[in-house]
Amino acid sequence: MHIEHAAILGRGAVGLLYGTVIADTLGTDAVTYVMDDARYQRHLGERISINGKPLELETVPASKATPADLVIVATKAPGLEQALDTMETLVGPRTCIISLINGIRSEQRIAERFGWDHTVLAIAQGMDAVFLDGALTFSHTGEIRFGAAEETLPDVVPALDDFFTRAGVPHVVEQDIWHRLWTKLMLNAGINQTCMAYGCGYGAASRPGEENRCFVAAMREVLAVGRAEGIDLTERDLSEMASLIASLDPEGMPSMAQDRVARRRTEVEEFSGTICALAKKHGILVPQNTWLYQHIREIEESW
Ligand SMILES: NC(=O)C1=CN([C@@H]2O[C@H](COP(=O)(O)OP(=O)(O)OC[C@H]3O[C@@H](n4cnc5c(N)ncnc54)[C@H](OP(=O)(O)O)[C@@H]3O)[C@@H](O)[C@H]2O)C=CC1
Ligand SMILES: CC(C)(CO)C(=O)C(=O)O
């Protein structure tokens, strides 16, 4: 198995960032954006900039797409259902699939449609990407952490590792990918939801105060639920995530806070939605995530 070309679904912060990294290293032929025909028409003529330079990569409508070596899913979670339909034209018998959607559920949904054989488990972390009004800015590319699911075929992870290495995409092959996914879920339930609920950035969530208490309390509840699910999340993982956020630009904000600015449907179901449901199953009290869920839903409904 050899990957030469990637198709990216989701021409937003994450999709643009990694598409640009791949094209900068392997050339513009190595990557294409694909979207459903209606979305393609809606975005036609749009000017997109990446750190001030115009986007030079091709975008094709689903009706003109052909099977790719690799599909990178970089929509937000609410866009996945429609993206799965677009993927029908992109996924051939040997197409590898990686989802960079936050949370722990997107791969299962992908595998229900396309199977686990060529699907890996993954998250992207550590970037400071902001995409608003067609302009992407970032100074840290972050990294992709991925690993095999139980049923992923053995040659898929090495092929992806080889492609990302050639394409200059920072990445780590995880031996315990579920631990990584849950650590990221803990971070997102804390920082994304806090910054969305309070309309604040990384700085406010890291300084002593209500936002910081919310950030840490929400993470600690994920830690308890994760442990009940059999994931070995620790206080050390939590402290590392808090330090990571404290190291970012204080004015920067996570994707969910950008959703608040742009008034887009958020990924709250992936974060507190998932945690509250699992907490109920295990009889664990999660008042911070319950409050965040309700408050974020109220903000969304007020738009
Ligand atoms: N931003 C960040 O720094 C990070 C984000 N993540 C995660 O990565 C994922 C992507 O986030 P992000 O890039 O910020 O999101 P954005 O909102 O910036 O971009 C999402 C893009 O996906 C497009 N889209 C939605 N549905 C479809 C579809 N069916 N087919 C094709 N394109 C579609 C949207 O287009 P349209 O505008 O037309 O709806 C939009 O361009 C999320 O799960 C997020 O949590 C992970 C790490 C960091
Ligand atoms: C918090 C962050 C930036 C971590 O990389 C993220 O995952 C997001 O914005 O959704």
Automatic annotation (TrEMBL):
InterPro entries reported for this sequence: 6-PGluconate_DH-like_C_sf, 6PGD_dom2, ApbA, KPA_reductase, KPR-Related, KPR_N, NAD(P)-bd_dom_sf
Domain Ketopantoate reductase N-terminal: 7-147
Record's function text: Catalyzes the NADPH-dependent reduction of ketopantoate into pantoic acid.
Family: Belongs to the ketopantoate reductase family.
NADP found in the keyword field: yes
Residue stretches spanning the membrane: none
Protein name: 2-dehydropantoate 2-reductase
Pathway the protein contributes to: Cofactor biosynthesis; (R)-pantothenate biosynthesis; (R)-pantoate from 3-methyl-2-oxobutanoate: step 2/2
NCBIfam families, alphabetized: apbA_panE (TIGR00745)
Domain Ketopantoate reductase C-terminal: 176-300
Pfam family, one: ApbA_C
Tagged with keyword S-adenosyl-L-methionine: no
Alphabetized UniProt keyword annotations: NADP, Oxidoreductase, Pantothenate biosynthesis
E.C. code: 1.1.1.169
Top-level taxon of the source organism: Bacteria
PANTHER family: 2-DEHYDROPANTOATE 2-REDUCTASE, PROBABLE 2-DEHYDROPANTOATE 2-REDUCTASE
SUPFAM superfamilies xref list: 6-phosphogluconate dehydrogenase C-terminal domain-like, NAD(P)-binding Rossmann-fold domains
Recorded catalytic activity of this chain's protein: (R)-pantoate + NADP(+) = 2-dehydropantoate + NADPH + H(+)
